[in-house]
Write the structure tokens for this entry.
Amino acid sequence: MERSPLAPATFPNLPAIDGVTLRVARAHYKDWDRCDLTYVELTEQTAVAGVFTRNICCSTEVEMGRESAAGGKARALVVNAGNSNAFTGFRGREAVEQIRGQIAAHLKCAPSEIFVSSTGVIGVPLPRDKAQAGVAAALTTAPCNWQTAAETIGTTDTFAKGATASAMIGDTRISLSAIIKGSGMIAPDMATMLGYIFTDAAIEPVLLQHMLSEANRRSFSCITVDSDTSTSDTVLAFATGKAGNAPLASMDDPGADAFQAALTDICLQLAKLVVRDGEGASKFIEIEVTGAVSDESARRIGLSIANSPLVKTAIAGEDANWGRVVMAVGKAGEPADRDKLAIRFADKWVAQSGLAVDSYDEAPVAAHLKGRDIRVGVDIGLGDGRATVWTCDLTHGYISINADYRS
Amino acid sequence: MERSPLAPATFPNLPAIDGVTLRVARAHYKDWDRCDLTYVELTEQTAVAGVFTRNICCSTEVEMGRESAAGGKARALVVNAGNSNAFTGFRGREAVEQIRGQIAAHLKCAPSEIFVSSTGVIGVPLPRDKAQAGVAAALTTAPCNWQTAAETIGTTDTFAKGATASAMIGDTRISLSAIIKGSGMIAPDMATMLGYIFTDAAIEPVLLQHMLSEANRRSFSCITVDSDTSTSDTVLAFATGKAGNAPLASMDDPGADAFQAALTDICLQLAKLVVRDGEGASKFIEIEVTGAVSDESARRIGLSIANSPLVKTAIAGEDANWGRVVMAVGKAGEPADRDKLAIRFADKWVAQSGLAVDSYDEAPVAAHLKGRDIRVGVDIGLGDGRATVWTCDLTHGYISINADYRS
């Protein structure tokens, strides 16, 4: 698959996180010549928090991960690429339990401290023999770097995705490094967005969960490629505590705000990278909604626009078809008043108070639409609610990836 | 535009409806050489009922039509093709009021008895001079047949769409004839599904509205092409009363059930015709959901599947990718239990009780998917709720129509 035209030029320079060791191996889940099993060993007492898909038909991995994250402690993460193990019933559960048991015996810890994710085709049980051999190989191989791990968790991804951030907690600088895979809320047949954030900060699991949920609300919950919510979406944050800061236990602790800001920042970076690898994407679209009755209402309106095939195809065609934005606002099911609505591309208002602006000059708008990064603004005119969401355009590439080839 | 491969071979033979006269004219709303204004004159005392888009940013035509339908009486219908007049503020309203005034003066009736629809690009006020000349021409030209009227209300439609039904009310046979336009819940830039049903039955407006709403719930509310809800969707039913049946005033009246069945039948015919003209469609897809907690829940699950780009591209690619159906059930936001879910293509079950059937043989499923008419079945396993929805596949044709050409 050709590298997305929206990809960053290079993989960023991610700092090592004390207490985190990365390894990859070949489990041969598919008939391919690449590593497809990622093993991350975490120091004892690593805190963990997670957010997971709300798809009711979620995978065993998601169910077990949600249970384990509630425990707050993690010793290892395994990511299988090439098979999502979703909708595989008791067979899928047995495969995950086997992996957890194998690693727990090696680390002498509880199986519930082992987190497993799988990404790939839905409906095929993860082969237990391949998983066992892959895990055995990973436990004995030499550690690798972030980029290799980011490549190994990928499936239809066209580039490896990583991000970093840092914050001061008291006098201690803490670091965050993260990797993610996905070409949308769902990558077809590959059914997953998986993201992993690692930090050396010391932080209580309950607070980490609170902060991750808050960061998720403003990042992963604000992106869409194709409106299809995966059965396996998972974002996990691991905190090893090795930085030596005074442990964070409450949002009132010094440094908690700084850590929240860094965590939200790294989640936003990851979320935007997924959109930039959206299937068939040729343009990155930022939609800013203001004047809604609440922030949540603004987010829903933004996603209604971002999920509209007609808006997405119009932008793909570099067509300043703002009537389709009007339509998408109106169908969102959120409070709006047609005659107060205003719409802009970049900073150029094209419609205000429910009709086209009198002086509308399409030339600067058309020029903006020829670029790679498109900005759409909508003011609802009713309140102070605001949100920004991100998506990509809908092109022939999406159809080719999802319809032209049999899975 | 090439005729849809899913189009019926010919336009059906629609009976004339006593009390209904059709005429068409050229208003030149766009730079095209075709009739684009349809005028339907209705006998005095014609009852009317309507269902309209729930898009908050609806057109003036929809607002005024909703008000007028509440009055229950109609004398004429005007349909403008090539301009939806939506999101045009006071200018749009003035244009509609002018048309109603012009015809009301001619017919010596109240302007509120004149129904106006417009379909086409959003955001451009309907030109009043062209509308006036077009209406004047239509008032004096010779009557035309149903097919000509069906062609004249069309925009991006690739074929004219009509349907008929009949029922016995007491000893009287009543007829229904109907026309519709649209290539989906929205036809891009053309922003409209417009449907008109005419009958010679005598029926009270309140009962007609009740019956139309019921028919709509099982027909137009169960189709989708691209999940984008138009600003102008309108379906109107007109009853001239010329058949001479004992007027229907209640569902308990003899013949009311028969009329409801005929009305629902004709609405279903129309709804399926719109799907068969879905933009870029190459396959007609029927999705039957059973075992949901309620009929409404079944309908929502069905539409979640029907709106999933990944399901629609899989079917376009003739790929029996039932994992995507699982995903779409799970994201619907309705009660479901992964481990009770069963999925079939045509009559072949591919998954049951939350995993693939042991004896799964893809050959008959693959053969079914090569056809034009695809049937997907989903059993939720929780209750007695059921619904059937209809959609089409998502192909390169949709992208080409909506992205490759500037509007």
